[in-house]
Amino acid sequence: QEHVISVNLREVSMHLLKRGRGRESPMQVHAVATRYAAAQLELSRLVCQLITKAASVDTTSDRGFSLVDQMSSDQRRVLFALLERYCLAVEGLAFPLPQGFPSFLTYLGYRTLSFSAFLQYVQANVLQLQIDVMKAIMMEVPDTQEGVEQKLRLLQMLPRSRGKRLLNQWQHPASLMVR
C-alpha cells in the first residue's frame, strides 16, 4: 500500500508542477498531493464500511479478526465476494486500500473458503499471508495429522525469514524437524 500511495503522490505532484500556473512552490504542490492521497485513503476506508454494511455485518461490537469469527458463514461468504471484487477494482485503478485490509481479507478468505481454494488464492497472490494472519491460523488449526500438514503447506508459501519466525513460535515436534 505504501508503494501505491507514494506513486500516487509522485504522479499528482508531477502533474501539478507540469500543468500548474508556475506560481506554486514545490512545498505547496506536495501539500496538495498529500491531501489528495489522504482523501483517497479515507474514501477507500468509507467504501469498505459501506460494503460491510451492504453485507449486513454489524461492526459496532467487533472489528478485525474477531469480527470475522462472529459472522455467520453466509455473511462471511457475501462479504468475501464483495471485498474481493473491491480489491480487484482498486488494484486496477492503483487506488490505496485501507490499513489492515490485506490481512482482514486473507483471514476472511481463510474462514470462508475451503483450504484448497484458500491455497489457490494465496498462490495467485489474491490473498497475502501476513504474520498476523499466519499467527491466527497457526493457533486455530489443531495439531492433528491433517492440521500439521496444512500448517506446513502454508509455512512453505512464506518467505524464509517469516516462515522461520513462525516455526520458532510453534510448539510442535514437526516444527523442530523442519527448522
Care to give the gist of this entry?
It contains 10 helices and no strands. It has helices at residues 2-19, 26-54, 64-70, 73-93, 101-112, 115-123, 131-140, 145-156, 160-169, 173-178.
Structural description of this entry:
With 179 residues, this protein is an all-alpha fold. It has 2 domains: 111 residues, no CATH class; 51 residues, no CATH class. The protein contains 10 helices and no strands. The mean pLDDT is 86. It comes from Graphocephala atropunctata. One of its GO terms (cellular component) is trans-Golgi network.
Helix content: over 70%
Compute the separation of the termini in Å: 31 Å
Percentage beta strand? under 5%
Summing up helix and strand content along with how strands pair, one would put the structural category as: mainly alpha
Specify the overall morphology: elongated
Cα-atom Rg, whole angstroms?
A: 20 Å
Ranges where pLDDT stays below 50 over 5 or more residues in a row are none
* Total domain modules: 2
Which secondary structure elements does this structure contain, and how are they paired or packed?
Blueprint: H1 2-19, H2 26-54, H3 64-70, H4 73-93, H5 101-112, H6 115-123, H7 131-140, H8 145-156, H9 160-169, H10 173-178
